């Protein structure tokens, strides 16, 4: 029974020394001196704010992309014990002792380091030699721009890591297809492909480009499988379902989970939530939730309400009126109704309160039991403080002459009768019998007499002149096919009116309101709103000193100064290895020309290279050249401020193309021993040049040692490079 102990237990393992050595070198190059400089470097000033908000559980919206990347940076802060207390207000600010700089920069550095062995494995899985794979990894290792970007609290290195992991996982899955379909390892690499793609998209939407490339590649490979007569229909269906599950369903689920965790962590109200709807704001702890707690849910006749415009940008505003009237004549000579002004006011104020009145009754209080207002009901809106009725008529609005003026009606005993009936249309209703609800219902007010829709036009135009206190214009929009969010309103604050007497009602309106509705807003509702805000929120795009165009990137005619020491010449720049970038461009050009030449020759039934070499050439190009194209060309269509770091995912794929082209040239174009020897010598000389440029630019990548003004001038290899030189 115990015979097995007579023999020693032996464990054997195969260790790829190349892979281990590359991983160690990658870690050294990215982790060395990680705390230097102990100051805010370039976009750390931007991402650091979000890390602090995570630490304090305060909600925010970042229009740059989904939350996974921010959460990973925040994880570094959490592991380092960061409390979130630091003022991220300027580049170069010294970090206080409570900021765990090494921990905050650790995850981007690890991701950048692991890109080195990933590059090696990708070339191996593409069936290129270990020598070519080693060359690809060393080029990534010695790429100055990737080193710089991965050593700080930035997202590009994390994005590139997940992109390369997705590519490697898919290649491993594909290579297992013929011999080990549906095995454990087959499932592992297929599922990891989907997970990595989802993580790439979750870090930045740029990850979508590689995700689409892999989906297209998987679709092409499956199309070839359909023509395989050895596969049954059931087997094909299983393959299709497996790919659909791993590459579409699971990534979508993971993407949702990123937002779920994000929203679970950020449950407190903060300065960013004002652009969200009232329902979203009320679901957060503090802020609007404190005001709306205990409010009635259903709006009834006699309800006292404030109406917030749903658009909420460039600023939130509420329907407002005050005792002042429109001027008899405007500056351009047009006349007005001289009625009481109605505006959209961007601050909470007692003049934002309105009373929902039944046109058939005089009372301004809620009956017992309350009579709820439903979709399609006609109401009058009475201004709480001045008791005048919301009105519109065929008079041109002050700033929008093609729209109707909106006012509170004053009876001047002239031939302009009141037109103050409004039909309530609940835009997000589930049925035509829906009740108008506090915060949750989004409504339009359609004027019964003219069919004009109440609209906050000032959100997309200029504010009123001095006579309107620079408040935002409200109009009756006559041409209202469909609807814009500026025509949609929701009740934010709400109470049931109890006082019929005006003086008592004014006291009531001045008192604070006291229905917790957070439970009514589901995760999917919050996700949908937040996702829409991320996609549509536009920050003011201003010309940045270091912004550039996509054309500048190829020849690296631009750089970015990330940090400058306050007293010495030490500085950090985002600069690529010029030899590597030029070689990558040359490799892309050679690949394109050779591919076109081969295609033309094959069309004439002339085969210059064996079929397996052709398939290898095309598959490697699909990944490397295709990865460069899909990560670069879309920037020509984008209307946003662009920076050199946007090119890093594309140039990573382009660098992988260099050893692909070099091995192909050596195997198929250098046919004699002499040519092969000369070609090898040229590669060694070229690689020595790459290493020399890496060493030369290292002081600008690591920020040390500090260089003298003359040394800095010597590094200005292009007139367009902005190397910072202090004046003596």
Automatic annotation (TrEMBL):
Its main location: endoplasmic reticulum. GO terms for molecular function: dolichyl-phosphate-mannose-protein mannosyltransferase activity. Pfam families: MIR, PMT, PMT_4TMC. Its EC number is 2.4.1.109. Keywords: Endoplasmic reticulum, Glycosyltransferase, Membrane, Repeat, Transferase, Transmembrane, Transmembrane helix. It catalyses: a di-trans,poly-cis-dolichyl beta-D-mannosyl phosphate + L-seryl-[protein] = 3-O-(alpha-D-mannosyl)-L-seryl-[protein] + a di-trans,poly-cis-dolichyl phosphate + H(+); a di-trans,poly-cis-dolichyl beta-D-mannosyl phosphate + L-threonyl-[protein] = 3-O-(alpha-D-mannosyl)-L-threonyl-[protein] + a di-trans,poly-cis-dolichyl phosphate + H(+). Belongs to the glycosyltransferase 39 family. This is Protein O-mannosyl-transferase 1. It comes from Zosterops hypoxanthus.
